[in-house]
Amino acid sequence: MNGFVCGVCGYVSIDGTAPDNCPVCKAPKSAFQEKDAIKTAEAEGPKEKHVPVIKVVKTCGLMGDGCTDIHVRIGDVAHPMESAHYIVWVDFYINKKWVERVHLSPDCSPAAAAHLKSTEGKLTVIEFCNLHGHWINEVDL
Ligand SMILES: [Fe+2]
User: Fold this and answer.
1) How far, in Å, is the centroid of ligand 1 from the Cα of 131?
2) Residue 92 CA neighbour count, 13 Å, CB half
3) What is the Å distance from ligand 1's center to 63 Cα?
4) How far does the centroid of ligand 1 lie from the alpha carbon of residue 126, in Å?
5) If you measure from the C-alpha of residue 39 to the centroid of ligand 1, how many angstroms do you get, rounded to a whole number?
6) Spatial CA neighbour of 32 closest among 1, 6, 11, 12
7) If you measure from the C-alpha of residue 130 to the centroid of ligand 1, how many angstroms do you get, rounded to a whole number?
8) What CATH number belongs to 1-36?
9) pLDDT tens digits for 4-50?
10) pLDDT, position 65
11) For a designed S-S bond to 12, which of 3, 76, 116, 139 qualifies (C-beta 3.0 to 4.6 A apart)?
12) pTM over cut 0.85
């Protein structure tokens, strides 16, 4: 699928426009390029390991009411986390608006979590693999 990709930090704008400034790294609009580079489940082989698997927990165990927990694991088959090949970050969006980035290292599991104030809307998750690029998945909260 198409998106405007920040040439500095890899953030993807998914609302059909390049922002004035990248919400993640503040790079200017000129740093963005439209690319057909965001892969969906159709691009994955039978041994899936890139598409974000999203679990929504409506009742947050930490913050209580009004907080929605999002648990993401990268791949039905867990993606490798080695220095040569790993998941670099995971971005969370509500209704196509970016809300959070979680940075990972090879010492992490291929997983991330977010505590969101939103209790409804469309949640999008994009992860970036250092070898295989951007992968997307979406669910309704
Ligand atoms: Fe990969």
Assistant:
1) 5
2) 28
3) 33
4) 13
5) 12
6) 6
7) 7
8) 2.20.28.10
9) 999 999 999 999 999 999 999 999 999 999 999 899 988 887 777 89
10) 87
11) 3
12) yes
